[in-house]
Amino acid sequence: MSLFWRNFLLLAGLLTLTVLAWFQALRTLEQEPRALQSAQALASLVNLTRAALIYTDPIARVALVKTLVDEENVRIAVRDPADEHRPFPAGTLGARVAQALQDKLGPGTIVAREVNGFDGLWIGFAIEDEKYWLLADPSRLAGVQGRTWLVWGATALGLSLLGAVLITRVINQPLQRLAHAARRVGEGDFDGARLDEDQPTREIASVNHAFNAMAARLARAEADRRLMLAGISHDLRTPLARLRLEIELGVPDAATRARMADDVAEVDTILGQFLDFARERPLRTEPVALGLALERALAVYRARDDVLLTVRCPPEARVRADATLLHRILINLLENAVRHGRSADGLVRLDIEVQLAAAGSEGLVAVHVRDHGPGVPPELLPRLSEPFFRAEAARTTPGSGLGLAIVHRGIERMGGRLTLALADGGGLRITLHLPAA
Ligand SMILES: Nc1ncnc2c1ncn2[C@@H]1O[C@H](COP(=O)(O)OP(=O)(O)OP(=O)(O)O)[C@@H](O)[C@H]1O
Ligand SMILES: [Mg+2]
């Protein structure tokens, strides 16, 4: 779930609850005064009616009752003890009004919502021994209407949710920018990742400032590293080349000369591995035909008679890769097989098999490189691709222990995966999983 939706839903939930609580509070607060007000008006009506009835003579009384009907929408009826009446349900505005009316007019007052099957606001009162019903307009009891509540509730909720969207966006935007910038830095683009430090919000400005400082420091470290690598490669390789020349010209003994030349060559190779590992060329991926890439890497080994190759690669096998990096990776694997994977008879048997992306393989093409050498103890398998790690048996051969680390990192940079396993029947089986093109 995105941060925006999480924050928005949390805020929306909170606001809905608040609006409902307000709604309930207002309703409660509104009912009490309304009940008292209604009760006061009804009590006055009852008292006035009673007084009028008492002090008018029987003839005028008819006219009075008619006027009450016409002007006040109030009817008077004689109350019979056998009349069936129903009170207002407890908790409603009607029940509160009834309670307030009884307080004002005396405990004998009856307030009903239905008498003998007729709905209305019925109030029973007495004049001396005669008992009467006063039927008033029930709309006197109607509270604020449901529709009004609904309209205002919806308006309040709508405005709150709009506010929630705005607030969530305000919170989110700097985080989004930060995430974006962090991604850029992760990809090595230090200049494109600058964040705005002139933010009105102090905390955001300070985070942005810290981030920019970090990116600047990383950029400087990266520049220093590049400079150092260029320096190493130039400053060490130039004297090395000079040394090689001096050995050729200045060492008279042929055997010593050859040994010294080998040593210089090894130093040069190790230096090359170091540089390969430390220097990250920008990646240029393109569709690469695996068959051709394999043949290019195998060319040298095909010429050797101590290397026996079996290659099975469907001609249509293509991967998305950086051709130079892939070549480097294949050479490292082949070199390892020659160096560490010789069979007991001193020959190097190499089986290379390419499997096209199958269902469930996440679109990855598998390149298996298997030798028939001694392999390694199984517990060391996960460590082989660590930089500078070399198994015990490899200590007698030249090398730096960076070959498989370069393979591992290169494969991951191209969006693939490296697996190391021991093959049935001995030997190491290395699989490169690369995105199909
Ligand atoms: N085909 C193989 N058979 C047996 N062991 C192997 C094989 N390939 C690699 N290894 C083991 O894994 C270790 C690490 O290999 P890696 O290529 O990283 O270093 P290296 O070959 O020793 O040196 P370099 O940096 O010159 O390649 C080797 O030292 C060796 O012990
Ligand atoms: Mg190696």
Q: How is this structure best described in words?
A:
The chain is an alpha+beta fold and about 425 residues long. It folds into 3 domains: about 5-145, Beta-Lactamase, CATH 3.30.450; about 190-280, Helix Hairpins (Orthogonal Bundle); about 285-435, Heat Shock Protein 90 (2-Layer Sandwich). Helix content is about 55%, strand content about 15%. The chain is built from 9 helices and 12 strands. The chain has helices spanning about 5-55, 60-70, 95-105, 145-185, 200-250, 255-280, 290-300, 325-340, 405-415; strands spanning about 75-80, 85, 110-115, 120-125, 130-135, 285-290, 305-310, 320, 350-355, 365-370, 415-420, 430-435. The strands form 3 sheets. The chain has a 5-stranded antiparallel sheet with strand order 1-5-4-3-2. A 5-stranded mixed sheet has the order 7-9-10-12-11. It has a two-stranded antiparallel sheet with strand order 6-8. Strand 11 and strand 12 (about 430-435) form a beta hairpin. The mean pLDDT is about 90. Bound molecules: adenosine-5'-triphosphate and magnesium ion. Magnesium ion binds near residues 332, 335, 336, 399 and 403. Adenosine-5'-triphosphate (ATP) binds near residues 336, 339, 375 and 400.
